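Same chain as my last thread, 298 residues:
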Amino acid sequence: MRMSSRIAPLEEKHIGIIDLGSNSLRLLLVRIHADGSTRVLNQVKHMVRLGEGSFVHKRLREDAMTRTIGVLRSLAGMCAAYQSSEIVAIATAAVRDADNGQEFILRVKEKTGIDFKVVSGREEARLIYLGVSSGLERSGKLRLFIDIGGGSTELVVGNSQTYRNLDSVKIGCVRLTNLFFGSRTGPVSAREYAALQAYIRNAARHAFQRVADFDIEEAVAGSGTARTSRRLPLPWRMRTLCARAGRPEFPGMYSVMTGWSGSCGNCVPARLKRAARFRVSTRIGLMCSLPGRPSFKL
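reply #2:
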């Protein structure tokens, strides 16, 4: 019998993709057509702050878990309403670093029916690379992909074809707030600022050294932190950070990560333009199978 060489088309289906971070919880509902093309049906984001208070004692707090499970119930309902045949659910730093992380995953499964996979830091970096790079123009030049999350920061070096280096460091907005400031608000003292700098340098030293070995032509940032920063005028942002730290110079996280330092008024914009084009991706990194949205020049 002669076999047909034609490949049968895929069956159209709806899927839900959930990204549970230390700070935010996202759902993307997608229709996958028979030809493999996709269409976003709906997307939502909730600031559940699952990692709040967890990075000091390495345990998820009961109030944070209860809050997150309540939102996940509603997301499971949305997936059912859109007749999703599959839910892909990923959990990252807050869950993987918590001693009671697996207990939380089992509770989520029992209460919502959603079966989460907890990914390692390197796997999170790989998924972010796949998601963000698929939304950019194809290029053989090396890019640095940066994702500053609530519990970790992922640094990936790669081009459109493959990645060359994957790193995940324990630096994130929720983690640093937990470790250094707790629930306190107000000005940051010079002593606290210096301690924060030292922590960042020590946590990321080896990752930064590995990145420095590559000839990188472009940096791309993808995360809520990057999008929020992009909305602020850069000189204002530098001056505000310096004022909060009580310093005329800005040798903080920005210079720790880039190696650039100097006065707020003139150091960053000029050197940034010379060294690399810095772009902000609006894409959720874990949505690696979907077509990218535009990136924006900072």
